[in-house]
Structure formats: structure tokens, C-alpha cells
Amino acid sequence: MSTFDEQLETIRTGSGFIAALDQSGGSTPKALELYGIGEDAWTNEDEMFAVVHEMRTRIVTSPSFDGGRILGAILFEGTMDRDVEGVPSAEYLWNVKRVVPFLKVDKGLADQQDGVQLMKPIPGLEQLLDRARSKGVFGTKMRSVVKEANPSGIARIVRQQFEVAKQILGHGLVPIIEPEIDIKCPDKAEAEELLRDAVLAELDALGTDERVMLKLTLPEEPNFYSPCIEHPNVLKVVALSGGYPREEANARLESNNGMVASFSRALVEGLQAQQSDEEFDHDLGASIESIFQASMT
Fold it and tell me: Which end of the chain is more exposed for a tag (fewer CB within 10 A), N or C?
């Protein structure tokens, strides 16, 4: 069995969740601040990314972080291009931890229009996908955001996501499609209905061998995304924490059968740079276990 097929089987049938370790330039300072490192710790963007790589390295090398409870990890491009303990990051994740590596490929959000924020153009995507494949990456992730229940805006956001997803599929990678609905959306339930209908229509148009993943905001109605989970073209549906504290995100996830976590902030909530390795691993392990259990419903 090829590595890709092994990883495909891990994602399809394995127990666990996906760790989102893909903070980019805009979200990194906040992530480091929550971790206990202020902006005086770097003088330019390269130094900032070196600091956040140290944080990510500490997470993935922790004894608690392994394929027993974590199916995959989403990496930032700069993380993919760096090493962990002398091994390229994606290789380390799979060969040492048995965690499937994914890569964030979007370049951030465009300005809001029609109640949504589309993805900005992704220059050099073809080359990035080739490089990711050569480095042992299994799949990708790309995020856009719904702010209002605007039918035309949501139709555009879903259409853009699937257009890029088809490019990614063409490079032999599995795309995670992430049309996030802002948890502060004033008509969130209505937006979810519009989004689900648009996503299902695009899924129905895929070829039988085109498999994608979905990363969706935890819905207002339990099991609302069951038709997506059950769709033959969907490998896995994962949930983003979206700003909910870990306890609330876990509680919402528990009421959505078959949906597993792909948490970022909720995963690292409470971890501090100043902790000893023993304290850090204990707290990370407790976080991982709580998210794992919530993902097993």
C-alpha cells in the first residue's frame, strides 16, 4: 500500500481529530500572545515565524501528540518548509507520529462583499501543490468566511471553494473545503441552510473518484450536516472551533454525530511558553483527550 493510500485509510476509518496548527501572518501574533510570548520577542516577520515554529514544534514533539488520538495536522506553508528534530515537518508528522499532514494553501480573505469574504487570489498555487506533494503532504485546507445569510454571497463562496478544490484534486491531493460561518453571524441558522444546500449541489457534481473533506462551523441544529457526512464524495467532515472556548466547542461537537474536531485555538487553550515540559504535556494531553472524546460521538 502506498503512503497516500495508508493516509487515506487513516483519515477515512481512523479514530481521532485533526489539529489545526496553521496560524498565518495575521493570526500568529495573537496566538503567540495567548501562549505567553509578546511582540517584543521578534523584530520582523521571519523571526516571528521562527518563534511560532518553536511553539508548533513543542506541540508536535510532545508525547501526548500522536496518531492514537490525532488523525491529521494542518500546517502553515512556513511550517512545511521547516524541520522538526532535523526531519522535514510533514515527514516527521507521518513517519514519527503517524499523523497525516495537510497544508493551508489560501492567502487570506478578500474584503467583505455580499455578506461573505471570499479567498484572495492564490498566486503560484500550482507550484505550491507540486511542492507539497513532493514533501509528503496528503491534503490541503483553504478558508473563506460567511458573515451574513446572503444567498448570492454564499453561492459565490461555495463555487470558489469547489473551483480551487478541483485544482487541488488534479495534483493528487485531498482538499479540505472550509466555508466558515462566523459564529457571530446574526442569522447563522439561515446561513447554514443556504450553505448546506450549495455544498450538496457541488458535491453531487463531483466525479465518483473525486473525494473531498469539509471543515464547517458547528451548527445551531445538532446533526444538521449529516447529509454532507453521508455523501459518497466526502471523506470526512470536521468542525472548526470558530472562537468558541474549548468546553463549549466540545459540547457542541458531542451533539453532532460523525463530525470530528479540527480545532486551533481551542486545542492550545491554556498552554504557556513558561510551563515546564511536564506541565505542558499534561495540559496538552488533557486538551487532546477532551477533544478526542467529543469527536467520538
Answer: N
Domain co-membership, 118 together with 56: no
**Are the CB atoms for 233 and 209 separated by under 8 Å?**
no
Which among 178, 180, 192, 202 is annotated as catalytic?
178
Grid cell, residue 109, equals 480573505
Cα 259–chain centre separation: 13
Domain annotation covers residue 110: yes
Q: Specify whether 247 is catalytic.
A: no
Q: Within a domain: residue 2?
A: no
For residue 211, the SS3 value is coil
pLDDT along the chain (297 residues), means of 10: 95 96 80 90 90 94 98 95 97 98 96 98 97 98 98 98 98 98 98 98 97 98 98 98 94 98 94 96 98 97
Domains identified in the chain, total number: 2
Indicate whether 13 belongs to any domain: no
Is the Cβ–Cβ distance between 80 and 89 less than 8 Å?
yes
Active site residue 33: no
Identify whether 38 is part of a domain.
Answer: yes
The predicted model scores a pTM of 0.96
CATH number at residue 150: 3.20.20.70
Residue with the three cell numbers 444538521: 224
Q: 258, 239, 237: which is closest to 249 by C-alpha?
A: 239
**Domain final residue pick, 223, 240, 257:** 240
What span, in angstroms and rounded, lies between the C-alpha atoms of 180 and 212? 16
Specify the 3-state DSSP secondary structure of 104: strand
Cell numbers for 29, please give them: 501574533
